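Propose amino acids for all 127 sites.
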């Protein structure tokens, strides 16, 4: 989806952990003028901190949720990936993961509602 992101306006991401491997995908979309909203855990590892710094410099909005465990990527209202994989090298390349890619409108609508509720709860708590 990152390579086809010219037709996407907004991507919403839940990933407790990420590093430069995952950030690369999001940066491709940011360079195509896609708005990125990311909820992650507050970083405690150098790779996570660096990835978030790079994403912010490219215009991503980032909020922290210490309770986050879900992994989800929503592309506008057209597709979603619900997966066990974090957006880091381990989750993307070195571990056995499971997930689904869906274009089912009801599932996507529910995923957007789930994301937006968390985003709004965090609005006044994070910068």
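Proposal:
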């Amino acid at each position: 989806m990152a390579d086809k992101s010219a037709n996407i306006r907004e991507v919403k991401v839940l990933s407790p952990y990420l590093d430069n491997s995952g950030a690369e995908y999001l940066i491709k979309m940011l360079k195509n003028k896609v708005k990125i909203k990311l909820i992650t855990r507050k970083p405690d590892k150098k790779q996570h901190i660096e990835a978030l710094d790079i994403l912010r410099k490219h215009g991503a909005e980032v909020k922290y949720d210490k309770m986050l465990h879900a992994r989800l990527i929503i592309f506008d209202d057209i597709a979603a990936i619900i997966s066990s994989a974090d957006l880091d090298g381990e989750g993307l390349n070195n571990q056995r993961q499971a997930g689904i890619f869906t274009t089912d409108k009801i599932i996507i609508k529910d995923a957007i509602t789930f994301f937006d509720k968390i985003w709004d709860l965090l609005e006044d708590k994070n910068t």
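Residues 1 and 116 are 21 Å apart (CA to CA). The two ends are 28 Å apart (CA to CA).
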